[in-house]
Design a protein that fits this description.
This protein is of the alpha/beta class and about 260 residues long. It has 14 helices and eight strands. Helix 5 runs antiparallel to helix 6 (about 105-110) and helix 7 (about 120-125) packs across helix 10.
């Protein structure tokens, strides 16, 4: 484990399509948080989609060129930080499945996989940062914020990251975390699932919005902008005054 004060810790940021196109503020917050913690961060300009949408839709021949591009772009010894559980899962876990018939490429993916971390994993498991983040937040003395937390599916079920985000939120003296019921249950987005099965997706979203309302918090926090986009739409449609926030945004605001 690297020290959170070790300025020699180097990482590359993979920003994801959703963040790049729809939520650039999440990427900006991610950069600020990592740099405050002394990470030597770079952003490879050649990066594109990791291939997850095509892979999940069964279009593996379209996903493979994108995945190969990722492997080419992020080769090296640096950590790769991804502010998304689903994209991190795609690279770390599903590239092996995607390239099951290409042993050489599968071997490249397997070599890269241990360097890939979702943001909360990187902050806790690599940097050991909760204590440092708490100190920075204490010094900042920001306005108090009450939040509830939605566990995104890939983060929990594929990466097994069930404690890191909560540890970070609980380290913030100006943030109170109130758990919602069934925080681990899918919000109904699931990429193209929300389009193909809109009625089911809508019903799942309605349940999630009700649990968020019952929690009584001012914001709902998650680690995937895609889920937050879906949940935010449901909150807005029902005129529920709860803000959808990525974990990176909460950490950024608390520390600034």
């Amino acid at each position: 484990m690297a020290s959170s004060s070790d300025r020699r810790t180097s990482a590359s940021l993979f920003v994801t399509c959703i963040i790049d196109q729809l939520s650039p503020e999440v990427g900006e917050s991610t950069v600020r948080v990592l740099r405050r913690l002394g990470v030597d961060l770079d952003f490879p300009m050649a990066q594109t989609c990791c291939g997850q949408p095509a892979f999940n839709s069964g279009h593996w021949s379209e996903a493979k060129p994108l995945a190969r591009k990722f492997l080419d772009t992020f080769k090296g010894d640096k950590y790769i930080v991804i502010p998304s559980g689903s994209c991190a899962s795609m690279v770390r876990i599903f590239y092996g499945e995607l390239f099951h018939d290409e042993p050489e490429t599968a071997a490249r993916a397997a070599k890269l996989a241990p360097k890939v971390f979702e943001l909360s994993e990187f902050l806790v498991d690599v940097l050991g940062a909760p204590a440092t983040i708490g100190e920075l937040a204490s010094a900042a003395k920001r306005e108090h914020l009450s939040v509830t937390y939605h566990e995104t599916c890939h983060l929990r079920r594929e990466l097994g990251a069930m404690t890191q985000s909560r540890a970070l939120l609980n380290a913030l003296p100006n943030v109170t975390l109130t758990e919602m019921k069934q925080s681990e249950v899918c919000c109904g987005f699931g990429g193209t699932f929300a389009v193909k099965y809109s009625d089911i997706s809508g019903a799942m979203l309605n349940d999630k919005v009700n649990y968020i309302k019952d929690a009584g918090a001012r914001a709902v926090v998650a680690c995937d902008s895609s889920c937050l986009m879906h949940i935010g739409g449901g909150l807005d449609k029902q005129r529920v005054p709860v803000r959808p926030l990525h974990l990176a945004q909460v950490l950024d605001q608390a520390m600034s």
